[in-house]
Design a protein that fits this description.
The chain is globular. It has one domain. It is mainly alpha-helical and 227 residues long. The chain has a two-stranded antiparallel ribbon. The chain has a two-stranded antiparallel ribbon with strand order 3-4. A two-stranded antiparallel sheet has the order 5-6. The N and C termini lie far apart (44 Å). Bound molecules: iron/sulfur cluster (SF4) (2 copies). The site of one iron/sulfur cluster has 9 residues, from loops.
Length: 227
Amino acid sequence: MAGTAGAVRLVVEQDEIELAGYAGRASVGDLIAALARMRLRPGLATVGCAGCGLCCRDRVPVLGADLPRLERALGLSRERLLSDHLELPERPDPDERAARIADLARQLRASPAEATLLYEWNTGEPLVPRQADDGFCHWLRDRRCSVYPGRPLICSFYLCNFGDRLSALFDAIVRQGVWHSYVALGWIDRDMVAHNPFVSAGDPTQAPLRAFDVDVAPLLQRLADTW
Ligand code: SF4
Ligand code: SF4
């Protein structure tokens, strides 16, 4: 996934990698490419990835975009991928979702878009790879990823020392990617999440970065104020 050089600017601040800015046309693929370049910067072991492998112990979210990639890498049908390799979350109930969003809009005097954003931020468990007995992802073999070419996007994206702005962007990408996975599984209708940048992008890595760059903090505060 070739990124446009310079479309995303990252900086190192106090041993953290932070987002300095991005071009209006920048995509998720550009961010992944910028992070990949950051990993390769010489002499930056403390701000890049030390390769300890510990993040393969986290429950990596498998996003909608990952399903066909994993099917190709493993040579498996969707059915076999789901049954033999992934742990599935509880299936969302579209009626309950619609009712809860309507409740939030009423309760917070929020627009439908704001209520939807808040609902999606707080709900939706991801699909995750099965865990081996040692607690690591079951695709980790001899300290190497056995599905490397088709590994989940988050595995090529995540570094454990993101700054606040990069973390917030990462969280938004994961959140929308989880809801995209429900569409990919046929669990919810794509019209219900037509606003989702992954749903509208033909190639998920081309989803525009700016579509994920939303500040949910004021909405979360309004929700907290009602408790
Ligand atoms: S991102 Fe962090 S936890 Fe993951 S392998 Fe690199 S140094 Fe280890
Ligand atoms: S898919 Fe590969 S890189 Fe990702 S958590 Fe599993 S072993 Fe690690």
